[in-house]
Request: fold
Amino acid sequence: MYRLYSMQRSGNSYKVRLALARLGIPYNLVEVDILQGESRTPDFLAKNPNGQIPLLEVAPNRYLAESNAILWYVAGGTTLAPEDRIDRAVAMQWMFFEQHSLEPNIGAAYFWLALIKGGRDLQRHALEDWMENGYNALGVMEMHLAKRRFFVGEHFTIADIALYAYTHVAEQCDFELRRYPAVRAWLERIAAEPGHVPMDWQPAPLAVAD
Ligand SMILES: N[C@@H](CCC(=O)N[C@@H](CS)C(=O)NCC(=O)O)C(=O)O
Reply:
């Protein structure tokens, strides 16, 4: 049984909860409050020296970090993880793009504007760059989605899950999606996928094994 260390309002953690829900995989959820430093305790650092969530315990004392690596692991062997060589590389292309161009901008803006009290004043200078770079990333996604339903091939994959997590909260942190109709249509398409769960959804608690 997997154990997922996650924070409810973390987009990176939401990716994993969304994939596990969609795949119908049961797991134990452990809430880690990063705002209280809970991912930086000696106990947590022994599990993930990088001090971040999400973190998946895949087997007793075997831990996997990095949301997109976790997506590849949990979705392996299912239609969510493309097997065809080029489709797999395209999925990775978009998941690297997500980590390099989307998450550091929209994710950072979401963290400081939506989760941290007074965050706007603390990050006034950085915010300008996050907005510019975040809009650039949305522009790239818009061009791709103008002629396609999903990011890879013609069906829903973990690349969509990775990109959905922070794009769907962009309007909660100053981004205006009016100029991105294809992105908005894609957001609606993802939310209508079978097995979709919103960010505030939690699995029913399971008995903890140890
Ligand atoms: N590249 C990592 C980023 C993970 C990340 O930034 N996690 C944040 C929450 S969304 C975190 O744990 N921050 C706490 C800290 O760095 O102390 C991933 O995709 O999983």
The pocket of glutathione is lined by residues 10, 12, 34, 39-40, 51-54, 66-68, 99 (CB under 6 Å). Strands lie at 2-6, 27-31, 55-59, 62-65. The helical segments are 11-23, 42-47, 67-75, 85-115, 119-122, 124-145, 158-167, 181-191.
